[in-house]
From TrEMBL, chain A:
It comes from Paracoccus aerius. F(1)F(0) ATP synthase produces ATP from ADP in the presence of a proton or sodium gradient. F-type ATPases consist of two structural domains, F(1) containing the extramembraneous catalytic core and F(0) containing the membrane proton channel, linked together by a central stalk and a peripheral stalk. During catalysis, ATP synthesis in the catalytic domain of F(1) is coupled via a rotary mechanism of the central stalk subunits to proton translocation. Component of the F(0) channel, it forms part of the peripheral stalk, linking F(1) to F(0). The b'-subunit is a diverged and duplicated form of b found in plants and photosynthetic bacteria. The lineage of its organism: Bacteria, Pseudomonadati, Pseudomonadota, Alphaproteobacteria, Rhodobacterales. This is ATP synthase subunit b. InterPro entries: ATP_synth_b/b'su_bac/chlpt, ATP_synthase_B_chain. It comes from the Bacteria.
TrEMBL record, chain B:
InterPro entries: ATP_synth_F0_asu, ATP_synth_F0_asu_AS, ATP_synth_F0_asu_bact/mt, F0_ATP_A_sf. Belongs to the ATPase A chain family. It comes from Paracoccus aerius. HAMAP family: ATP_synth_a_bact (MF_01393). It is a multi-pass membrane protein. It is found in: Cell membrane; Membrane. Key component of the proton channel; it plays a direct role in the translocation of protons across the membrane. The gene is atpB. This is ATP synthase subunit a.
Length: 197, 251
């Protein structure tokens, strides 16, 4: 089967060279008569250059390109891992700092409330003292006022009695009676009892 | 002369296969095995492109990659992950070769799409050698790593005893079809895509259909860019699958 194929290809190649010859003779550009892929006369050439190319390409890829790209990728992976770890550390530090800040804030707050309470107690004390002082003053003044009111009332009472006695004596005299001073006093006192007070 | 006459008669001249001809770079002589040809030139450009991407791109070794470096890292990561996922960690030993294969095929396909380019992966001789290297390499690895147990790949113990011989025959056939399917899939895709673009481009000579032809060429070209990458990817992923079979032959 292979020999058959080769024969066919050789015939094709012969035709090809013939047409090439004729076209060259006519000054034309070479044209393909069959599939150029089946022209076995060029196989050795293609395979030779392919093997050379693959060897060179393999050397370039295996010895230069892949190690370099691989090292770049692993470097990047390393850098990323390092950065992530550093970030984790910073996060931890930030958390610690936050805790410290919260603690300081709470301390300051309790201190402030302590100071406020102390101040309040002090002020309360002063206030109490002032109120007590004021109360005493007020009581003293009230007592004095009451005393004076009593004096005024007493004097008014005495004056009213005097006037009533005088008026009673004058009335008794004008009716022609004799004035019994003791009787008049008694009558006035009994009348006045209950009027005043 | 015949083609020229034909061309004048219809206003069309199709030479979709001319782009695949292997020509000497210097002069018109015969193509010997050592002759520098367009194959040589384009394979050299593949090596140059790989150097530019993987070596020049990563020369900064930057922690924060440049654009070129991130593409190189993307290619590295893609093939690396492919091997690790499919063939397992012990397959990573063969990472350089799989990477070489991928870079060669992807750049051969993509550079082949440049106007006036020669596509080395459109030649069955090239893809055949690539596929043969994979299959022979994988078979050798399989026998070296597992000894006779490599044949467990064909003798499926999880199946009932009665059907095992039949399955063995099927497995053996499928094993030997692998290099054929690998090489023909790649070359076939490349030949077909490039030939179709050429045919559409030939139609542009007729004024009436020229706009359609131009749009078709643009569409085909975009599709071929996709195919160029996908075929390189498929070749590489199948290599990984075969490598997995060689490293862990039991199903």
């Amino acid at each position: 089967m292979i020999s058959l194929l080769q024969e066919a290809v050789t015939i094709a190649a012969d035709e090809h060279t013939e047409s090439v010859a004729s076209s060259v003779a006519h000054g034309e550009v070479e044209t393909a008569t069959g599939l150029p892929q089946l022209d076995v006369t060029t196989f050795a050439n293609q395979i030779f250059w392919l093997i050379i190319t693959l060897l060179v390409l393999y050397w370039v890829v295996a010895k230069i390109a892949l190690p370099r790209i691989g090292s770049v990728l692993s470097d990047r992976q390393g850098a990323m891992t390092g950065d992530l770890m550093a970030a984790e550390e910073f996060k931890l530090k930030a958390k610690e700092a936050e805790a410290a800040y919260d603690k300081a804030l709470a301390d300051a707050r309790s201190e402030a409330s302590k100071i406020v309470a102390a101040n309040r107690a002090e002020i309360q004390k002063e206030l109490d003292a002032a109120i007590a002082h004021a109360d005493a003053e007020i009581a003293a003044r009230t007592a004095e006022s009451e005393k004076r009111i009593r004096e005024i009332r007493d004097s008014a009472d005495a004056n009213a009695r005097e006037v009533a006695r005088d008026v009673t004596a004058e009335l008794v005299r004008s009716f022609g009676g004799t004035v019994d001073q003791a009787a008049v006093d008694q009558a006035v006192d009994s009348r006045m009892k209950g009027a005043l007070q | 002369m015949a083609t020229e006459a034909h061309g004048e008669a219809t206003g069309l001249s199709f030479h979709p296969m001319d782009q695949f001809i292997v020509r000497p770079l210097f002069g018109d002589g015969e193509v010997h095995w050592y002759t520098p040809t367009n194959v040589t030139l384009w394979m050299f450009l593949i090596v140059a492109a790989t150097l530019a991407l993987l070596v020049m791109g990563s020369r900064g070794r930057a922690i924060v990659p440049t654009r070129g470096q991130s593409v190189a890292e993307l290619a590295y990561g893609m093939v690396h992950k492919m091997i690790a996922d499919i063939a397992g960690k012990d397959g990573l030993k063969y990472f350089p070769y799989v990477m070489t294969l991928f870079m060669f095929i992807v750049f051969a396909n993509l550079l082949g799409l440049l106007p006036l380019a020669f596509t080395v992966t459109s030649h069955i001789a090239v893809t055949g050698v690539l596929a043969a290297a994979v299959i022979i390499g994988v078979t050798v690895i399989g026998f070296v790593k597992n000894g006779v147990h490599f044949l467990d790949l064909f003798w499926i113990r999880s199946a009932p005893l009665a059907v095992r011989p039949i399955l063995a025959v099927i497995e053996v056939i499928s094993y030997f079809v692998r290099p054929l399917s690998l090489s023909i899939r790649l070359a076939g895709n490349m030949i077909a895509g490039h030939a179709v673009i050429k045919v559409f481009a030939g139609f542009a000579a007729i004024a009436a259909v020229a706009p359609v032809a131009v749009v078709a060429v643009v569409g085909m070209y975009a599709f071929e860019v996709l195919v160029a990458f996908v075929q390189a990817y498929v070749f590489t992923i199948l290599t990984c699958v075969y490598l997995k079979d060689a490293l862990h032959p039991s199903h």
